Structure formats: structure tokens, C-alpha cells
Amino acid sequence: MTRYVRDDTNIQTKHMHPFIAKIITREKESLREFQFSLKKAFDLLGNVYAPIFFCVACLMGISLPLFAWKSGGVLNALLGARGVGTLTSELTQGMWMMIVALVIFFGTKMVLTRLEGKMHEVFMRLAYTCELIVLVLLSASALSVFFAHIFLFLLWKICAEKRIRVGIAIAWFLGLVWMFFSLATDVALRVSTLGDMVSVLAICALFFCAVTRPFFQKP
User: What distances in angstroms separate CA 185 from CA 105, 142, 158, 178, 190, one per listed residue?
Assistant: First the structure.
């Protein structure tokens, strides 16, 4: 059975360009390794604890993107409340949502620290995957940012050489700096609000950190 799967993979990739085939094979192997590790973790933890840690990892991946996305709305609500001189329900709800997101993040992080070794690595990778997916989905409100995130993520995956990734990270960071000044100009010209600027910058900065963090954490 194993031999048949490997031959099928070769049939699918042998007609492709060698560079593309190499990338696809590498990503398939990485995905299979993660699936195997996750299945093994479920087998070791059992039917009770495995779903709990699975949900905890997913919540950890969702919490920070939710905090970043909500920060702009809270800022706009704060400026509006300051203008009318009263605490609005929108501001109160937004602040509580941000507090809950932070509590969930630190709480789930503490729960996952109870796992050790390969088990901890597997569930942290699950949280990392959820974080990337949520960040891409949240950026869909601005199509230019959405497609830029997909392009940069694919470019990062394709270019696995260390020197190239360092160059991409530097160019990406400079792009974030340029985006800051561009959005600040739009705010000054009243094209967009300060809250919109904060939300977009927070999501983009968090996506940059999420994508590049595993690379720079490697010894």
C-alpha cells in the first residue's frame, strides 16, 4: 500500500517542472508528517484529553488575530465616545472582547505548556496553522491585503533557502513601514479612519510575525 501511494505521487509530479515538483513533494511530506504526528498525539492522549487540547490549540490560534482585528473598532468607538462624552455600548463590547481574547490566549498558552516534547510541538503547530488561516480570512475585507498575504505566503514557502528568506523578510518589513506611512496619509486626508489603519497594520504585522517566526526561531 505504501509503495502504491509513493508511485502515485511520482506519477502526479513527474510531468511538472522539477522545481515545482520538488516544492509540491516537500509540502506533501510536511503535511503527511504533521497528520501522522497529530494522529499519534490523539492516540496517546485518548478520546477525552485529545479533543480538549485540540480545541485549546485552535482557540490559541484564533485569539491573537481576533484581538488585532477588534483593536481598530475599539479605537474608533473610543474616539466616538470621547466626542459625545459618554461610554457607548459598542466601546464596552469591543473592550470586553479584546480582554476575553487576551485571557484566552494566555490561558491556552499555559494549558499547552503542560505538554512536553513532540506533543507540545504538534499542538503548537496546530495553533500556528489556525492563526495563519484566521489572519488570511480577516484580511479578506481589504482585497489588496488579502491577495498580498497569499502571494507573500506562497513566495515564502517556495523560497526555502536561508539567504533568500532573509531578503524576503527584510523587504516585507520595509513594505510594512511603507504601509504605515501610506495609511497614516489616508487618515490625515480623512480617506480612512484611525481605527481602520490600526486594524490593517495589526493584522499585517501579526501575519508577518506568524509566517517568519518559525524561521527565525530555528537554531
Answer: 33, 17, 34, 11, 8
Q: What is the pTM of this model?
A: 0.83
Closest CA to 131 of 190, 85, 64: 64
Domain that holds residue 101: 2-217
What's the mean pLDDT in 21-43?
Answer: 80
Phi/psi-derived region of residue 46, left when phi > 0, alpha when psi is between -120 and 50, beta in every other case = left
Q: What are phi and psi of 189, to 5 degrees?
A: -90, 5
**Residue 24 Cα to chain centre, angstroms:** 21
Q: Are 106 and 63 a contacting pair, CB within 8 Å? A: no
Q: What is the pLDDT of residue 4?
A: 42
| Distance of alpha carbon 188 from alpha carbon 48, whole angstroms | 54
Distances in Å between the Cα of 95 and the Cα atoms of 77, 115, 135, 197 are 10, 31, 20, 18
Q: Using 50, 70 and 90 to split pLDDT, how confident is the model at 99?
A: very high
Cα–Cα dist 70/72, whole Å? 6
Q: 515538483: which residue's cell?
A: 21
Greatest extent of the chain over all pairs of C-alpha atoms, in Å: 71
**Grid coordinates in use for 199?**
486594524
What span, in angstroms and rounded, lies between the C-alpha atoms of 63 and 44? 27
Closest CA to 75 of 205, 204, 197: 197
Phi, psi of 218 (to 5 degrees): -65, 140
> How many structural domains is the chain composed of?
1
